[in-house]
Structures are given as structure tokens and as C-alpha cells.
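Now for a chain:

_____
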Amino acid sequence: MDQRILVPFDGSKPSTVALTHALEVHPGSAITALYVADANGLGPMEGDRAEIPEEEADRASEIFEEVRSRAEVYEATVTTDVRAGDPAETIVEYADAESMDQIVMGSHGRSGLSRILTGSVAEEVVREAPVSVTLARSR
């Protein structure tokens, strides 16, 4: 059965691993790569979303070139979208609003003090997501 898969994508190695996993494990599924511009420091919010600065929009365009390139290897089409907000909250809200069936995301695999100090977007998404979450850990 074809699924609607959300892959939060920021161009990092973990997000690339997650995209590759989604393309390999879910061929034929509708995959959406979502870039979330972290709203911390982006300025005032308008409604539920922050204005996305031009530099963030340009960064998303560059990042999505890699998404398209990787999708071509798998002869797949990946839809892309950009949102601004708190990353974990935005991912969870997007998955719910867009009726996604699953979230596939990368994990940096931090542990101990590093994880405590930096927090974990993946951990928060796993706790709050309305759908199944697959974590693809980069090694």
C-alpha cells in the first residue's frame, strides 16, 4: 500500500540517511521532504507561522536540490515544502495537518550530557507525533 511519508530534511547527514531510507523502504509512496526554518530568532510570528527570511528560503532551495538528485537515483518524485517554527512542533503539526501516514527522520544519536544540553527534536517528535515515526540513525 502506498503511504504518505514525511521526511524532515535539513541537508544534514542524518536527514540524508532518513531520506534514503524512505526512498529504499517505501518505493512508490508519496514522500514529502519538509525543511523547517527554526523560528527562534526569525522575528515576529504572523498567525501561526513566522515570515521565512530570504536567506532561509534560499537555503531550502539549495537543500532541495539534493532531495531531487537523490530521488532521481530511485526514480522517485519527492514533494518539498518549507515552514517556519519550532522544528519538533512544526513537524508534528505538519504530519497531522497533511494526513501523513508515517514520519521518517534522522537522529544524530547523541547521548548523555550532549543530549541533555541540546535536547532532541527526534525524541520530541516521537513523543508527540500522531503517526508512527521511524528513526534512521547515521553511523
The two ends are 30 Å apart (CA to CA). Confidence is low (pLDDT under 50) at residues 44-48, 114-118. The first strand starts at residue 4 and ends at 8.
